[in-house]
Every structure is written in C-alpha cells, then in structure tokens.
Amino acid sequence: MKQITDFPNLALGVLPTPLYRLDNVSREFGKNIYIKRDDMTGVALGGNKVRKLEFLLADAKAKGADVVLTAGGPQSNHAMLTAACASRLGMRAILVLKKRGELTGGNQVLNAIYGADVRFVDTDSYDDVYAEMERIMDGLRAEGRTPYFIPVGGSVPLGCLGYVNCALEIANQAEELGVRFDAVVSATGSGGTYAGLTYGAKLFLPGCRSVGIGVCDDPFADIAFDLMQGTRELLESDVPVERDDIHIEYEIGPGYAIPSPEGCAAVRRLARLEGILVDPVYTGKALAGFFRLLESGYFGDSEDILFVHTGGAGALFAVDLV
Ligand SMILES: Cc1ncc(COP(=O)(O)O)c(C=O)c1O
Prior knowledge:
Elements: E1 19-21, H1 23-29, E2 32-37, H2 49-62, E3 67-72, H3 77-88, E4 92-98, H4 107-113, E5 117-121, H5 126-142, E6 147-150, H6 157-177, E7 183-188, H7 192-204, E8 209-214, H8 220-235, E9 246-250, H9 261-274, H10 283-295, E10 304-309
Parallel strand pairs: 2-10, 3-4, 3-6, 4-5, 7-8, 7-10, 8-9
Antiparallel strand pairs: 1-2
Pyridoxal-5'-phosphate (PLP) binds next to helix 3, strand 7 and helix 7.
C-alpha cells in the first residue's frame, strides 16, 4: 500500500486542526461528543475543501497548469476555497457556477476579494455547467494556457485523499487524548469528504463507524462506494471497501441550500452552547441530523462520537436564518 506522503501535497492548510470535547453539548445529550475543527483549516474562512485542494492543486502544478476551473452553486464554499488557494499559488481561478440561489453576498464577496473570474450558467444541471467549462478550456488551450479541471466539490479519489489524511490526523489526536472513537459524523454534499473519511477510518480508526449526513438527495451510499473504491485503487490498498462501511442519513429540509428550521435551530444551539459557528447549508443541517440521531438513541450511551465541522461560515452572510 502507498502512504499518503507518497502523493504530492502542497500543504496549503494549517494542520492539524483542533479536536476537543464539546463539554456543554455532551452534558445536554448525556454522551461524549467531540468536534474536529476543520472550519479552521487556515485558508479564507477554513473548511473541508482545503484538504482536498492540497492534493488536487499539487496535481495541477505537476501538470503545468496555470488556470484552474471548478464548478458549484453561487454560494459554493468549494469554489471560493479553490479561488483562495489558487491565488496563493499564483494561478488564475475560473469559477463556473449555477445561476440558482443567492448570487451576491457571502462567498461571492470572498470570490471578488480573491479576484476570481466568476461565470454563471443559467441551468439546474451540472451537465450544462461542465459543457460550458469544456468550451472555456478549449478557448484557454487555444491561447496557449494550461487549464486544470476540478469537478464539483473536488470529489474525485485524489481529493478524497485529503480526508484519508484527516482520518490519520484524528487517529493521532485520539491517541493523544486517550479516546477511542466509536463514530465519526460529517456533512455530505458531493460525497468526497465522507468517502475519504470512511475509507480512512477503516484504515486508521478501527471500530469507528463513519456516518454521513446528506444535505441533498443524491444517492450518497453509491457515490461514496465508488469514490472509496477509487481511493483504495489510488492507494493500492488491499483493505476492501464494503457496503457495510457506509452509513448515510439525510437532513435536507425543504431542499439543498434552502435553510430549514431544524438546521437553523442547530446553528443557534451550537453557537449558544459552545460559541462555535456553523452554516445553515451544510454543517448546520448535518448538525441537525446529528442531534436528531443523538435524541433517537442511534448512538450507544457510552460511545465517544466525533462531529467533523467542515466549515462553510461564508454562507451565514448570504442567507437568512429561519
Ligand atoms: C461547508 C461544507 N461542508 C461539507 C461539504 C460536503 O463535502 P463534500 O462535498 O465532500 O461531500 C461541503 C461541500 O460541498 C461544504 O462546503
């Protein structure tokens, strides 16, 4: 099996991110609940995508790319973080975004600060967005530029390595704290974070199940299975990917990126209990799903559970809490 360190990584993040016990949340739910602060990855407002981009942009650099293109919704945290990381590397970023949702404020302010080239496509389908990206890339190649394509969320096996790496980081921190995690819970939007974390948990966190909370209605069990297989192949690992490794719950509310009363209540609850901010699109809904599972007896009484805060604070300034 290859080691994560065998893959080029640009070390863009400030890692390891903190991991500690949430004393007030633990008291409220009568469980041992910890948080992994991947909202503090050290670029822009932090977030999970920095870990993926460390590997993806290393690949882009190795291929001589000078322009990076990615896709997302108008408030995409991934697109904004791609722009932030690209700026730092002296690369141009073109963000091709679906013209649906909040087109100003929040991450759009940050995209402008980073000087990203933002293009909107009036569609509901990523097929149209990707077709537009192909057109843009053809034009760039004709000008002698070298574009690098990153799909929505950076959810390809190379990006998933960022979260295999995170699982290793968690294993080291758990050892230092003297904790053995029974479960790790994370938000799932395009599947890469969950897939990397789940395969990484299998490698480095024995006995720890990985629970993903889907914030849109994509078939995440299948998506994660395929991404985990791709990650296993990349690592040339003999450790198999099994359907039983995958535990997906959903917390979508009225729809993707539409704030839900439960998600917004979770935003307020975590802020007031622990002083930590989460966003209403990803982490807030994942937290609402996590709280629901805690209340429903999904986790055993003596279990040590880790919630991964994947960031997204920029969206707090683009949507109204309900
Ligand atoms: C803040 C935040 N949390 C979680 C996710 C989900 O990660 P993934 O797309 O890897 O499933 C995303 C991105 O989509 C995100 O921006």
